[in-house]
Amino acid sequence: MIRGNRAAILASVLFVASSVVWGEVQYVLTDLGVPGRAYGMNINSAGQVTIYSEGGMFFYDDGHPTDMYPLLLGGLNNSGQMAGAAEVGFAWYPALRNNTETVLLSEQQGFALALNNAGQAVGYLEGVGGRPFIYSDGQLTELDLTGAGGGQALDINDSGTIIGWAKLAEEQYRCFLYDDTGVTYIGPTFDNDWCGSWRINNDGEIAGSWYVDGRDQMYVGAGGQLAPVEAPEFYVQARDINSSGLIVGMRLPLAGDPSSDARAFLYSDRAFTDLNSAIDPASGWVLMHALGINDGGQIVGWGLDPTGSRQAFLLTPIPEPTAMLVITLGLAALLRLRPAQGGVL
Question: 342 — phi, psi (to 5°)?
Answer without folding.
Answer: 85, -5
